[in-house]
Amino acid sequence: MRARPPSMRVNCCKRNCCKKIVARLSRLMSDEEYEIEAGGELLMHSYETLPDNCKKYWKKRYQLFHKFDEGIYMTSELWYSVTPELMAIFTATLIAELMPDARNVLDICCGGGGNTIQFANFFETVGAIDINALNEQCTRHNAAVYGVEEKIWSHIGDWNEMCKLVNGKVCQDWIPENLRKSADTNHIFDFIFASPPWGGPAYTKTGEDFDVINMEPFGLDRFIKQLLQYTENIGLFLPKSSNLDQLRQVTSDNFGDGLCRIIYLYHDDYCSGMLALFGTALTDPNFTCD
Ligand SMILES: C[S@@+](CC[C@H](N)C(=O)[O-])C[C@H]1O[C@@H](n2cnc3c(N)ncnc32)[C@H](O)[C@@H]1O
User: Fold this and answer.
1) The pTM is what?
2) Which residues pair with 234 in a beta bridge?
């Protein structure tokens, strides 16, 4: 094994478990994955090495990943954008209950793998996509920490580019060959989830309804149309202040009489956002959510 580069320092905790972490990382990572410092960013931290703007999230590290001390990777962006583990477990459990036959799931915007890892605990295969190569590395690595790496395939790319039609057909080039379907179906994935960026910690400061139609990089109407090329069942994690009239309009425009199920997710008694579910299987009015 190559010598660890400086960014792989693992004096990360006060419990003297660093040797265990090094041993586990040695098993988990190939030499190439040590190149992860190429982006110049430290991915395993102590409180001291954490960038100042992330320090306030340090005390929540076990809420993000209860296996944090086993060598979890996080980019600085991920400290405030990873889905806390309990919320990700809730989401995956709910989808599995609503769609007991689902096998093949896609997580666009996989980030550090918070959601991807929990989906992998319930479904046969989970695709993980992210535009940011370091985040995609974090997802793959963190999935290995949780022992679910074999259920996950990943792709680095910009969703807005990946979903463009090619010669009038839905592009499946980025999907593993064994999961591709015939050109005339949108049943390529049983379910697609996305927790898209919505401005990070600053977004709540406006105090107004959040404009989901014009959100970047995925305006809701266009996003739903893109996703419907690949699935009939969609789950999006959106700001708690998302404009409900816009959600109603997008639902009616894309699903006719179909419904949108909205679930406000609380973490530590604080509402972190809403889960908006679209598609017949996910919006059955007879299903009640505890
Ligand atoms: C809120 S984070 C997702 C957090 C993730 N669910 C988790 O638990 O770690 C949003 C992610 O979307 C990715 N992203 C932003 N624009 C994208 C695009 N155009 N295509 C794909 N991924 C994108 C970002 O790199 C970031 O990792």
Assistant:
1) 0.87
2) 192, 278
The pLDDT tens digits of the residues spanning 64-99 come to 999 999 999 999 899 999 999 999 999 999 999 999
Are 118 and 85 spatial neighbours (Cβ–Cβ below 8 Å)? yes
Question: How far, in Å, are 123, 190, 271 from residue 100 at the CA level?
Answer: 9, 11, 27
Whether residues 174 and 121 fall in one domain: yes
Q: Is the CB of 163 under 6 A from ligand 1?
A: no
Instruction: With respect to residue 288, please indicate whether it lies within any of the assigned structural domains.
Output: no
Q: Are residues 98 and 225 in the same domain?
A: yes
Name the stretches of the chain with pLDDT < 50. 1-36, 38, 200, 202
241 pocket-lining for ligand 1 (C-beta < 6 Å): no
Given the CA of residue 110, which atom of ligand 1 is nearest to it? 5
Residue closest via CA to ligand 1's atom 8 equals: 114
Judge whether 132 and 146 are in contact, CB under 8 Å: no
